[in-house]
Write a structure and sequence with these properties.
This protein is α/β, with parallel strands linked by helices. It contains 21 helices and 30 strands. The two termini are 29 Å apart. The protein binds adenosine-5'-monophosphate-propyl ester (PRX). Residues 267, 313-314, 389-392, 414-419, 440, 501-503, 515, 517-518, 529 line the site of adenosine-5'-monophosphate-propyl ester.
Amino acid sequence: MDAPRSAAIENLMDERRTFVPDPAFVARANATADLYAEAERDYVAFWERLARERISWSKPFETTLEWDLPFAKWFVGGELNVAYNCLDRHVEAGRGDKVAYHWVGEPGETRSLTYADLLREVGKAANALRELGVEKGDRVAIYMPMIPELPIAMLACARIGAPHTVVFGGFSAEALSGRINDCGAKVLITADGGYRRGKEVGLKHHADEAMASTPTIEHAIVVNRLGHGVHMVPFRDHWWHDLVGRQSADCPPVAVDSEHMLYLLYTSGTTAKPKGILHTTAGYLLGTSFTHEMIFDLKPDDVYWCAADIGWVTGHSYIVYGPLANGATGVMYEGAPDTPSWDRWWQIVEDYKVSILYMAPTAIRAFMKQGPQYPAAHDLSSLRVLGSVGEPINPEAWLWYHEHVGRGAAPIVDTWWQTETGMILISPLPGVTTTKPGSATFPFPGIKADVVDADGVSVPLGGGGYLVLKQPWPAMLRGIYGDQERYRETYWSRFPGMYFAGDGAKRDEEGYYWLLGRVDDVMNVAGHRISTTEVESALVDHRSVAEAAVVGVKDEVSGQAIYAFVILKASGEPSDALAVQLREHVAYVIGPIARPKYLMFVPDLPKTRSGKIMRRLLRDIAEGRTLGDTTTLADATVVDTIRENSGSAEE
Ligand code: PRX
């Protein structure tokens, strides 16, 4: 594992500006500094109090935490239903007419669903799943665009205790079938397609291709989004509007154990096989809803917009479960930020008077590139809290966000967390924390983080190292589906007794945390983690390729872009056309997000004597730097040859 990259440390260390909370905000803030003190005294008692106060239980829990490292059980003995907590209880309390989602389709149509609407639709969808034979514990795969039926499908699963696995709609058929087969899903919920960048994007043909090699899938439910018909396989495929449309809305929620599996979400690992990150019920619901209310300062009349895709964990925790458990009014948008033009998002903020906006630094940088005239042309005065997630936010982007979106007034919460953590773990509390551009500031109350050196020893303030977590938290992953040894090995073996997040971090003299990115080779493109191995495997999958190595290089818009070095088989002839074909091949095999931006044909690759590719050197070459340490390099002439070629990378 590489040491944290020093360039990132230098970059972030330069920032010295601070932003003190506005007294008017402080006076009304949900969070107070007392939370830190209470959690510090006894973190188990802290979460116990919150769980009793915030969750509607069918059966109260007996024990707050059973911690058999690295396996946690929270709220043991309790029973509950997540859909009940997200829907029924709000309707029962007389808030059925409150809007749960304002949905905006990319072509311009809109739908608003109240909590009562959502409860009805979820009941029908849950009954449809029942009709197809789905029972408590059965897995359901979901592969959909950003349409209301997506959260409805997830909640329908939760209502009957069937864990879901949502596969991002941009993923390929192969990625979908791999995930379905890993968890043995019985039903697939999909759509004919959706809209992206003004175009129709078909999904059903990918779903069909996937289902050709998924023996466990018995049925598919297909939402009719595009409306011009797709091939439907008799008895297997059912239109949503037929099957769901004819169901009764009455579907009693199934009470499940606190530790019942709520969902699996697959992340790219450092090996080719994605990891099924396992989340359970009560702790996840508590962690997501409480952080959502505190970190975004959610008030009953707020309009909250998390502009992520539900296919990623940010959407699971902060579009669906956290906000709905809190009875929030949310915005959901189907398409791209530049369609039909670069002011689409600002138009939505203005139209719906969005007061809380949560997005990724990659989007902020894309907006920055276009210029401030787009947000300036709209009334953004409703915005009062801004969030950032997915990768380190550079101080410059933070300041642009602050000035041009938040008009110098709205506090920014830079939230650090992971698919594995389920909930935000490091973030400012607005109204409490003095922020610094580029710093995620401090661990959330009840979270014990640290920065340690290679021996697991805490690094004094002012130093950098590895980010670790030293005590369990309610929304933490409960393991990797079907492979608990890999769970132990991946997260708990590097530093005994600690969860290793895989990120580098430093703390400044005042104890502020500054995230430095992944310490291994996983690339972060537009906020998405993509493993080098997966992209390499996809390249090698092509008939002309003998070997490949990929690295992430800095990119103004997407954070990192993928740079691929490819060795062809003797029969292969390097050409521009082949470079295009290989990049498309990666997009086909693992999805467009992994398509290399640059591709270079090389005769050889720099390797250690034991045969490991030295990606660090490739990164140096790709970014035009002087080479670092080359003493472990097996054949030094390789680097020179690659460097001579490096001007000719295809974009
Ligand atoms: O490297 C960190 C980065 O994204 C990783 C988690 O990615 P994923 O599981 O896809 O979840 C993304 C959304 C939670 C982390 O290990 N990351 C996420 N948020 C931040 C961040 N890096 C720096 N600052 C953040 N705020």
